[in-house]
What we know:
Number of helices: 14
CATH topology of the largest domain: Rossmann fold
CATH superfamily of the largest domain: Thiamin diphosphate (ThDP)-binding fold, Pyr/PP domains
CATH architecture of the largest domain: 3-Layer(aba) Sandwich
Helix content: 40-55%
Order of helices and strands: HHEHEHEHHEHEHEEEHEEHEHEHHH
Structural class: alpha/beta
Number of strands: 12
Number of domains: 2
Strand order of the largest sheet: 2-1-3-4-6-5-10
Radius of gyration: 20 Å
Shape: globular
Amino acid sequence: MTVVESVENTDDTADTVLVDAWKERYARAARDVYRATLLDIATSDPRIFAVDTDMGGLEDTFEAALPGQYVNLGIAEANLMGVSAGLAADGLVPFANTIASFAATRACEQVKVDIAGNNLPVRIVGTHGGFSAAHYGPTHHALEDVAILRTLPNLTVVVPADAAETEYVIRAIADTTVFPGPVYVRLGRKATPLVHDGPYEFRIGKADLLRAGHDVTIVATGPLPVCEALAAADLLAGRGIAARVLNMHTVKPIDEEAVLAAARETAGLVTVEDHVLVGGLGSAVTELTAERSPCRVRRIGVPDGFHDEVGSERELLALAGVSAERIAEAAEEVVRYGSQEAFEQ
Length: 345
């Protein structure tokens, strides 16, 4: 399995064929694309190991094909991190599979000491990020994981915007010559809309410019937040406001150049995430702008509190205020306050 390559299109028919192939390929949950991509890479690289915690889905795909590169430790997340660290210290490239909330909280000490502290090339892949397991209730919400894990040393934190971007991410981090340290990849549960219709330039640590705009900038991370950001940009366009939209798939290290350019060139920023407001993308953006280029920032995310509602991912995000209309309202507030020059005065 390889990423669909760009082709030179000579007519509308060729464009349509490429778009249709792309949509067919990635009309699946990101976690399914991840598993297929991991197996494809591991087939030609015996250093790649899948270390599992009874997550389901890897035993009948990866283990069936490569039993010698698969380890299932059962529901023991702390042990997962310790074993993965040991494999990495021995020259292997383990992909540690668990649920996002368990990776960040239940196994936090082992991630901190065994993996991050030793700068080992463990790839922690956490599914059910944010509210994507909202139907299970608050025990399965993963709303603090980015905040916790981005504080750990050496750890890169990536949140793909869709299934296609997930494949880009997994192929990139499989190369330990480029990414020799630990990586956390946050995935959801179900399929989400595609952000791009075809191949695009992707690089970890480099924001993906989805819309150009000079009035205000919306910075989003995660599948549904990015979709809501794009929908908000459409709403704003109808109101005469040109919104720049950045898909900030890499929260750590954040793309400083893109954020600072937005702070200088637009009236301010609105951040959007499927995460609590403390410590996530909004915090990363405000930390940077406060020190390097002060500007107005409005943060859209999950407010403080214990969210005990049960429902779909979209329903709980809407209850939390993570919606296109709320993003558009926040962007209008930023624009009303005026330019960077007005802010500095």
